[in-house]
Design a protein that fits this description.
heterodimer, A: 351 residues, alpha/beta, Rossmann fold, Alpha-Beta Plaits, 2 domains, 6-stranded mixed beta sheet, 5-stranded antiparallel beta sheet, 15 strands, B: 401 residues, mainly alpha, D-Maltodextrin-Binding Protein, domain 2, 4-stranded mixed beta sheet, 15 helices, 4 strands
């Protein structure tokens, strides 16, 4: 359902990805940019996967925001349906944070609007939204329980509900024994959990998370991912930004990629990958990553050790194998749809 | 309705978080103790000031007996201290235990001759000599009386001071200082509280649910309530002081009545309403303690001139300057209660001063609110001009992406 970690993996081999903090495509040297085939441009609002789209709830419609000469958002249009996890991707400065701030009225769009259920988002709607800003923020000297009760009350909960929920989220996130501690006495990881608790207290219908995985250790990532999956199952809409593309590929059903304020790619992750007119191949020749000399082979994203390439659909796998065999004996050969990071790189570099 | 609830929630958080802190409670207790301790201290100061001058006497010179009489006639308070010998007497002079040492025909002074004490001693010595002469001459009692008790002229004072003018002036001065301190201290709390919200970035989380003006208003109300509590403790201690010590012995203390304290609280509220929003605007511009100095001038720009005008005005509560300063909103919160303590403020002037303060508070809130809105969501130190223009998108040049 919400999680699709193991779906559609068997027929190609994924490289080991160990560092979730790796940064991707956008800071690769540009020399190959022109050679990478562009992913099929999609109208972000055209549902290329009708069956799986549930009620579209949060819509960004033609959102434009300028700061002086800097265009943070440029006619950005996309949606985050309830009950689904949407990954919001883009290079630093692409406008992700600005878009999220527009949801909460923290930034005022110059043009366009954010709508919820077909109507522009108003203050009452915002009370049912949870928000985790990129710059984490809590009262450093306030006890965890008091803090959660406070934010619960601000979200419109009654005093008794706020108390109950504060207790629930503290124990759900493993912070029950720290309920009386102050935020600045917590470890970094616990502060992150607490920040999530602040966002989810009040059981929001929609969660907007700006880089929720940044700085989490692998166990923290797992806890966070599990919780997001659980919330989505329960019907919460989730939009989160991230630079960890493998994580997004694992967790999200949908992605939206923006660059320089424009939506450059949006849709269902599986759909985007399978509909791509490119193939990712990984070849080992004589026990070493293969180094082809043809410009048809564009190094794949995050192919640090070499041997992974993106090729156009016009090439058959027999051709690729034949090319490889000319260099020596092929000891490993696998292929599959491009990774999200490949799609990301091509979308961003060609924007 | 939701507006009011949000403001209430914010105000309550700011109030309870601070009142729970140990530092706050300790400072309150210390303050109350200082005031209550002040009474006995003041009383002892008054004792010291009116302490009798000690006249050391060696042996039993004839003048000694006349000393008390002549002191009484001259309205100078003295006491006689028997001293065994000259060297002991000189030692006591050096220690300041004696004002003068009477040794036979000599009067010994440590540094200089005190004209008042000298007058007593001289008149006592002369009286003793006269006594001796009367006996030698064999005068009758009646003749002696007419010689020794000449007519004393009656004192007529043309411009007697008002009963407690000096006390009222001192009180006025104290009132100015107390109000200034109360507004600055609470204002400083507001400044630091706003800065904490900005620097900890919690502002972004809160402002996702609460409007900036609600957050600002709630904070100002929460901390203002705290300031009110502090002032009440201060006023209550002063009131308690009047019960502990003999009010008569400390001039002016009797005026610290409930009415005076009530007026202090009213003007604190008006002064705080005007200046607290400026402290908030200042706090919203900075994120670090080191930068606080660079923005404190914003509220001080109005507060300090008001304070100095008030100090000058307190010197003379009936002058024209005082009248103007007590109505002009910048200084009114510090001058009007001082003037009112002296009585005789026309009702319309009092009402006008209150009205002007409320209008000014509203205007300052609009002004400060705009700076606050424009700078709270920026992650670093913000220039006033940038914060001001942030709300007019045409000129905004934010770098927050």
């Amino acid at each position: 359902m919400a999680m699709k970690a193991s779906a559609g993996q068997p027929f190609w081999i994924r490289e080991g990805r160990t560092d979730p903090n790796d940064s991707f495509g956008f800071d690769l040297p540009n020399k190959t940019a022109a050679e990478i085939p562009q992913a099929k441009p999609l109208n972000p609002l055209a549902s290329n996967h009708d069956a799986s789209y549930v009620r579209p709830m949060l819509c960004f419609v033609g959102l434009t925001k300028r700061y002086g000469d800097v265009v943070a958002l440029d006619q950005a249009t996309f949606e985050a349906p309830a009950g689904r996890i949407v990954g919001f991707l883009g290079p630093n400065g692409a406008g992700k944070t600005t878009a999220m701030r527009c949801v909460f009225g923290l930034a005022q769009p110059d043009e366009g609007a954010v709508t919820w259920d077909g109507r522009p988002v108003d203050e009452a709607d915002r009370l049912s939204f949870g928000y985790m800003p990129e710059e984490r923020g809590m009262y450093p000297k306030m006890r965890l329980n008091d803090q959660l009760v406070y934010f619960g009350r601000l979200a419109g909960l009654s005093p008794s509900d706020a108390n109950e929920q504060a207790g629930y989220w503290l124990s759900r996130l493993g912070l029950a024994d720290r309920a009386g501690s102050k935020v600045d006495e917590l470890s970094h990881g616990n502060q992150q959990r607490m920040q999530l608790a602040v966002a989810v207290v009040g059981h929001p219908k929609l969660l907007i998370l700006d880089e929720p995985f940044a700085g989490l250790d692998p166990l923290g990532v797992e806890t966070m991912a599990d919780l997001l999956g659980e919330l989505a199952m329960a019907g919460t809409g989730i939009l989160f930004s991230s630079h960890q593309l493998d994580l997004v590929e694992d967790i999200c059903e949908d992605v939206v990629i923006i660059n320089q304020g424009r939506v450059v790619l949006a849709g269902n992750v599986e759909g985007l990958r399978s509909q791509s007119d490119h193939i990712r191949v990984e070849v080992t020749v004589d026990g070493h990553p293969w180094t082809p000399d043809s410009p048809e082979y564009v190094p794949a994203s995050r192919s640090v050790r070499g041997g992974s390439f993106i090729v156009g659909h016009h090439m058959t796998m027999e051709q690729v194998k034949a090319d490889a065999e000319r260099s020596g004996s092929v000891s490993q050969f696998s292929y599959g749809p491009p990774h999200l990071s490949d799609l990301f790189r091509s979308a961003v570099n060609h924007a | 309705m939701h507006n009011v609830q949000n403001i209430f929630l914010v105000a309550r958080r700011d109030f309870t978080q601070r009142i729970r802190s140990r530092v706050f409670l300790i400072s309150m207790v210390i303050m109350a103790m200082l005031i209550l301790g002040l009474g006995p201290l003041m009383a002892s100061q008054i004792d010291k000031a009116s302490a009798a001058e000690a006249v050391g006497v060696i042996g039993q010179p004839p003048a000694a007996a006349a000393l008390m009489d002549s002191a009484g006639a001259l309205a100078i308070d003295i006491k006689i201290v028997p001293v065994p010998n000259r060297s002991k007497g000189e030692a006591m002079l050096a220690d300041g235990e004696l004002a003068v040492l009477l040794d036979g025909d000599e009067t010994v002074w440590q540094r200089s001759v005190s004209p008042y004490v000298n007058a007593v001693v001289v008149s006592a010595v002369q009286a003793a000599a006269q006594q001796e002469a009367i006996i030698t001459l064999g005068l009758t009692d009646q003749e002696a009386m007419s010689l020794l008790a000449p007519t004393v002229p009656e004192n007529v004072v043309l411009e007697p001071p008002e009963d407690d003018a000096a006390a009222r002036q001192g009180l006025a001065y104290l009132g100015v200082v107390v109000l200034f301190m109360a507004v600055v201290l609470s204002g400083q709390f507001v400044l630091l509280g706003v800065m904490e919200e900005k620097s900890s970035r919690v502002a972004e989380v809160v402002l996702a649910r609460v409007r900036p003006m609600q957050l600002l208003t709630g904070k100002v109300i929460g901390i203002g309530t705290l300031g009110l509590l502090q002032l009440s403790v201060l006023g209550g201690s002063l009131f308690g002081l009047t019960k502990i010590v003999d009010v008569g012995s400390i001039p002016g203390l009797g005026i610290w009545t409930g009415q005076m304290i009530g007026s202090l609280i009213l003007w604190f509220l008006l002064g705080y309403a005007m200046y607290s929003v400026l402290f908030a605007a200042a706090g919203s511009l900075v994120t670090r303690q080191e930068d606080v100095q660079s923005v404190s001038w914003i509220p001080m720009l109005g507060l300090l001139p008001g304070y100095f005008i008030a100090l000058v005005a307190s010197e003379d509560p009936t002058s024209t300057l005082t009248t103007i300063a007590s109505i002009f909103p910048i200084s009114a919160p510090m001058v009007m209660p001082v003037r009112a303590a002296g009585g005789n403020v026309p009702g319309w002037q009092y009402a006008l001063a209150i009205g002007l303060c409320i209008v000014t508070a509203y205007l300052l809130m609009r002004l400060a609110g705009r700076i606050y809105r424009g700078s709270m969501l920026r992650t670093s130190k913000t220039k006033i001009r940038d914060a001001w223009s942030a709300t007019s998108p045409k000129r905004a040049r934010e770098r927050v992406l």
